[in-house]
Structure formats: C-alpha cells, structure tokens
User: What shape does this take?
Amino acid sequence: MTAPLMVRARAFAREVLASAFSQRVTSVVTFLLVLGATATVLVTAGRNAGAQAAVLAQVDAAGTRSLTVYAQGVQPSFTSAIVPRLAAHDDVIAEVVGFGPVTDVTAAAIPVGTPVGMRTAYGTFSGRPLAPGEPVAGLTQTWATPAALDTLGMPQGRGSVRVTDQGRELLVTDRVTLPEHLEPIEPAVITPGDPATNEPLTSLVVIADRPEDLPLVTDLVTAALTDVPPDGLKIESSQAMADLRAVIGGKLTAQSRSIILGVLAAAAAASLVNVWSLALMRRRDFGRRRALGATRAMIVALMTGQVLVLAAAGATVGAAAGAGFLAASGDPIPTPTYLLALVVAFTTTTTLIAAIPATWAARRDPLSELRVP
Assistant: This one.
C-alpha cells in the first residue's frame, strides 16, 4: 500500500471510530445486539454442535469404519500378500492388518500356566507398522497385550513364551494395547510378520478413512479376493453403524442450522431497524458531507464501516461469553473453526444489512437533507 493510500485509510478509520463514538446509543445497541445474538446461538446451536462433535467422535471410532474378513477353513489364496495391495489404496483405507492362524503359548517359566493365543500379524496395527525385529538372544520378538501378560503371569511385561505344540520360544519385548475393534481377540500375543512371505491368513481387518468410504472399501476388498471361493470367506461390515452416523449427523446438523438461521434473521432484522434509525438521525450530517463533496460511496462506506467495527467487536465478545458459559456449565464447546465461522457470519450479515439504509442515505438529495431540522 502506497503512502497516500495509507494516510487515507488511517483517516477513514479515525472517521469511522469518531462516528461510532458520536452516536453512542446506536453504537451500544448495535454492539449489544450482535453480542446477544452470537451468545444465544452458542448456548443453543453451539451446545448442540459440541454435543454432535462428541457423539460423532464416538461413532467415528475405528470400530464403525471396519470391515473384517474371516477365512472359512484353509484358503490358499487368502494370504498376507493381500495386505500391501489393499494398503496401497491409502486415499480411502486408513489401516490394514492381517492375522495368521492362532497358536497357543504359555510363559516359558510356567509351562503348565494358562495358554494365550498368539497370532502373526501383517500390515499396520493401531497406526503402528508391523515389521519383524531382529532376534534377541536368538529368540523372535513378539508383543503382548496387558491382559495377555496378566494371564501368562508376566506383569513386568518382559519374558519369553513357549509355543505349546512346538516347543520353540519367543521373547516378549513390548506391551501393546488392542484398539476397540480388535478387543474380541483379547488376550493376545502379536508377532509382527513380513507380508512378502505370503503366509496364510485366518482374518483380515480393513479400516476405512471415513464411514462414508466403507462401501468403496468393501468393493476394493471384494475385488482383491476374487481368487477365493465365495463360500470360503465371511465378510462382516460396520455399514449399519456408518448409516447410523449419517442419520445422527444429518438430524443434529439440520437442527443447529435452523437455530442459527432463525437467530441470524432476527438479528439482521433488528440491525436493519437500528441502522436505519441511525441514518435518519444523521440525515443532516450526511447532507452536509454530500454538499461538501463527499461521494455516495463515501457515505455508504462510512456507515457500513461503523457497523462492521461494532459487529465484529460484538460477535467476538459474544462468542467468548457463550464459550465461557458453556465451559462453566460443563457443556462441550464447539471447535475454534465453528466459533470463527459464527463471528464471521454475524459480522458479515450485519454489515451487509447496514448497506441498505446506507445506500438510502447516500442517494438522498443533499439540499433537501440540509433543510432537516
């Protein structure tokens, strides 16, 4: 911005602020009007939006985006090689993990202890890539869940386990927590495997990026399993939960939208009346400015600029007050994006509405306005 433009911008800003201070009653009414409208939306629709986000966060858990494939008997074509092929569709698939056959293991130090199922896993497990680690003291590394460690009698989280029907030992080197959608296999010992070994799978779990991606993910998985006989696999999908998510989100969003539009319309109407009152009270002032050379655009900019400053301040304070009320009452607070959108919506609407009386005032004949008592 050039120096002359900066000077003119500063002069205009000072004029806008001076106009706002000179019309204290109208300015306070505009400020409180937008503040009250914004706070009202936050403690009504905003509370709903916060609750909606909390509900959908639960619904959007991996368990509602999952597709599980179970092998019905031995299927030679259902192997770990499918894992990287599906993982390549990372635009719609968040995670793929395949599990090999279950083998019972017990703590090596307690051969007659309670056995726990051990599975070789391929792919990504709870966001953690599965890759075989280097053997430690000649023993293959494996992981165990907290429940498995308690069952095995290894609360310290370290030790070796023995495969009951083979006699070979593995070393438990890490503790891992199962995500909600894998809790049915608890307690479990998980051994990371290399998909390139093309080992047989007994189950495959695919997590879609979003609930709405689940139908496409189902098609991708089905296409990747065309070599397996139809009666050789059982597919379970959380599509019903994804559909429920869409219904819940749609109803809550529609309700919040109705509240916001209603309050916004009421605030716009009240603002229109208030700003038109300002235009009527300042008719003589605007006539004098026009007679002295002020353009119509200048009059419109002066009035809308004044309303813009007051509306922005009122909406910001209203959003802060509403968020504070929700926090104090223990209700969920909407996201910062929601708060910002609300401030922008009320500021923009109030300013645009102000352009109607501002245009009316700018188009009045200056000589007629100067005769106003």
